[in-house]
Amino acid sequence: MLSSLYPLVRSLLFRIDPEKVHHLTLAALGAAGRSGLAGMLGPRVPDAPRTVMGLTFRNPVGLAAGLDKDGACIDGFAALGFGFVEVGTVTPRAQPGNPRPRMFRLPEANAIINRMGFNNQGVDQFVKNVQAARYRGVLGLNIGKNADTPIERAAEDYLYCLERVYPFASYVTINISSPNTKNLRQLQGAGELDALLAALKDKQQRLADMHGKLVPLALKIAPDLDDEQIKAIADTLLRHQIEGVIATNTTLSRTAVAGLPHADEAGGLSGKPVFDASTEVIRKLHAEVGQTVPIIGVGGIFSGEDARAKLAAGASLMQLYTGFIYRGPALIAECAAAARTRSA
Question: Does pLDDT of 103 surpass 60?
């Protein structure tokens, strides 16, 4: 079973360029998903069902967006035991992202820095991939804006993507917090966020009437927020009755990795160094929104103990990204078991 061999596999993979490994892994996982063999790659994940945003999750451990930007490996990831899968970020038009190299490992800190820049094949191909998947569990579709779309017209990109992905999503994530698209985080400002969410909620209601179902919206926010910004975002989420919030994306801070190789590379830092900051945002956000806006906690989860800490801070669900890369499929089962133990 791959989970027991993963440390050896990882040591081999970590000798190869990170982006090359990423594409090789996706290709292998996609093939395993299509053949039905992906379920043999990890340990059995215990059920720990819960209902959040009106959706029933098999367990509270999900795949974070970013690993499968084009939604090409949904079946493969789902077969590993994730309780839900989120794919994207997708933009209206295909775009190459930022120049390479744009992904860097910091193994001494259990971290990754990336400045991918929403590289993807565009929403039309994304939807085709989603439609081709056999997975029928909870599927989150994460949307963003094209790099060359002026920030003043960002809402147009989000509205376009929302309309395209809506019929195929269990929930839709609005990603305004990637540090790798110029000026994107401006959309977290009170005025900009208020206008964007008002437009999206109006569109959501019209799409719900058209398709006969209300697909929840979740907002993905950054860890680099002060208390005033967190409160303003919380107030806006409550005012517009947004169904969920994902806390958090990657950080621009380098305090925890100062002096390490690649630490000065531009981009978002993920992994262990972001754990405390993301957990603190969850705690402060939960104090403002309570149970009204469920929180999906993500950032630096490397163990069952980390998973319990996210839940204790106020998260209802969690997602894995960098921890999954470093620990492999065994981490999914460990976190799901920890969540079940905590709720027992």
Answer: yes
